[in-house]
Amino acid sequence: MAKTLLLGNEAVARGLYEAGVRFVSAYPGTPSTEITETAVKFDEIYCEWAPNEKVAFEAAFGASLAGARSFCAMKHVGLNVASDPLYTASYIGSNAGLVCAVADDPGMHSSQNEQDSRRHAMASKVPMLEPCDSTECRDYAALAYEISEMFDTPVLLRLSTRISHSRSPVELHERKELALKDYEKNVTKNVMMPAMARIAHKKVEERLIKLKEYAETSGINRVEWGDRKLGIIAAGSSYAYAKEALGENASYLKLGMVNPLPVELIKDFASKVERLIVVEELDDIIESHCLKHGIKVEGKSLFPFEGEFSQSVIKKAVLGISPSYNELPHPVVGRPPMLCSGCPHRGLFYALRGLNLYVSGDIGCYSLGAQAPLSMLDSVLCMGASISGLHGFNTVRGSEQAKKSVAVIGDSTFIHSGITGLIDISYNQGLSTVIVLDNSITGMTGHQNNPANGLTIKGDPTAAVDLEALAKAIGFRRIRVVDPYDVAETKKTVMEELEAPEPSLIIARRPCALLKNVKHSAPLKVDRDKCVGCRQCLNVGCPALSRKDKKALIDPNQCLGCGICAYACKPGAIVKEG
Amino acid sequence: MAVKNILIVGVGGQGTLLASKIMGRVYLEQGFDVKVSEVHGMSQRGGSVVTYVRYGDKVWSPVIDKGEADIIISFEQLESARWLSYLKPGGVLISSTQKLDPAPVIMGQAEYPKDILDEILSLGIKVVSLPADELAEKAGSTRSANIVLLGASAKSQDIPKEVWLEAIKASVPPKTLEANLRAFELGFGA
Ligand SMILES: Cc1ncc(C[n+]2csc(CCOP(=O)(O)OP(=O)(O)O)c2C)c(N)n1
Questions:
Q1: CA–CA separation, A18 vs A153, rounded Å?
Q2: Contact A541/B at CB under 8 A
Q3: Which domain does B64 fall in, by range?
């Protein structure tokens, strides 16, 4: 049968389709997002964007209880948000299969930390599978459902940036259409209160023993013999790098299931090779497991805990070989990402300039406001923390501080976990000023609709969260809406709200400039006679602006006419074309 | 066949992903094992981007390391310099002469380096340079510079031209097909 090149994420979605999955709920997060974006193309699968990962997990849990094979997806930090339902879903188990994909990001291509989600699998005592290419993504996604139903447990599918975002050939199979399983009320199994949970916990421990047996014998963990002088234990991308680096010059214990880990299989493998090395990105989980069972291995003495591996990393650590290559004899100027031309976030940040504020930041495209030349953010922790963090900051520093600080948060992030922070401010009589940067889309992760923009995952119209009404219902009385392209008005509004002796919500509303239906003004141009070369316009940090012969220059192919540089230009040298 | 490594580098938004997708398709159809590794997310916002394309009898790793690329296809001069160390000794750099100022240059904190491609040539590296952006405009779409570069790289590979054209047909929106086919020819002939 013909093979198709699929991203790991697309292959996971294909696996869901083939396994008869009917329900998918997810919150976007790089590198996991394309699983859901692909699954939604199959009419047989109901798909939705949830407001956050906890909701996505719980919705999938409910669908599994109702008898449908169900799925949720998230990035590694998303599983922190969903860990509450995960840990107790482990006690309840599944009716029809319940699988959660979690995508780690070694090297932090697009994340705020580098945590290892295998720890969640260990702590919640559920099985975790880890594929090494797109074919395994498809196969393991489907296998996860068998395991979920066989052992009455949720199953985690661990991905990583390189697996999720690499294309490799996959053979497509037919979908297995499954009837809904019966739902029967079963209080002992499905209602977790102390009396039932005590019984359930015992079952979880027994299940773990059975899963260990499965890890030993099912074949999901397999030995590939090559030269026995060197034995490698690895899973996922680390396995792929090791095979590339060492080929037939080593033997491999390839792990497909990374929780729970086998013991006898590893002991047997260890006894047949001369030198044994664990290759694992991030934490030393396999290595610690080996040491706990008295198996002598090398691991983190050779490899770092941080960053992404590659074939070169392994060649260097194991064989001591470094590649040779050509290089220019000087460093090359960097190219950091920046806010796009026409980005409405730029107007808001530019309005905050000069106000000398503490700016409590959050996660999204607007995190780029932390970088020069805008340099506007004081802190970024995790989604939602801008608002609650500001509340804590202002509470200990007093009411004068509240006049010199704001929180900035995107619309999707606000829905995800900003609302509870807003309630914290209102309920606890805080004074903070919160700015929602409402660009009508989840921008950072590549344009997903969200509950605030009135469109479903398929782009169909639906109810939209009314942010103004929501803030009012929470107890806010001062609610203002501004257009961030109107920098002067935005600045004035922010100053007024900072002075107000009560909390305020400012909604800076203008859709993302990259959205297809957004109309742009004609590009602006520089009147070279008026330009004095002061560079003020360059401080808005727009990719359409540059300098030529000591004067500003606007690239008409990039300029969307937003006018923020014109606001910045004191001599009035930036004008409309023609 | 031993694995061949092609690195595609550029600036977020230049269309590197479409080029790598078409290449992957071509090699798969030629019966090779293929891995294409893409960058999504943060680095797309005008940052430096890289895609790895690898093919051969069996490809394990999705990434290309320093000193491993047989070909680097670069959409922008500064990016050619940035990724040069990934070229295998004896490999070819196919570079557009286009220049895009990065943020530090826009803000006047750094200069855009002069004569980058000449400097690379002076290291004894094989460089094929072409004004991919201008050729794209000539082809009828400023967005087809990626296909111009694809054409330039196809010339140095022994895969029949029709195979490339078929893959382009299957990968681009019908509206842009003609411009893209012209872009391929211009790159192929450059
Ligand atoms: C818990 C968690 N889930 C998901 C992500 C990935 N993520 C980063 S920002 C973001 C949403 C950004 O959207 P929005 O707040 O609307 O701001 P925009 O990017 O549109 O400016 C997401 C989903 C994350 N960092 N943490």
A1: 20
A2: yes
A3: 4-189
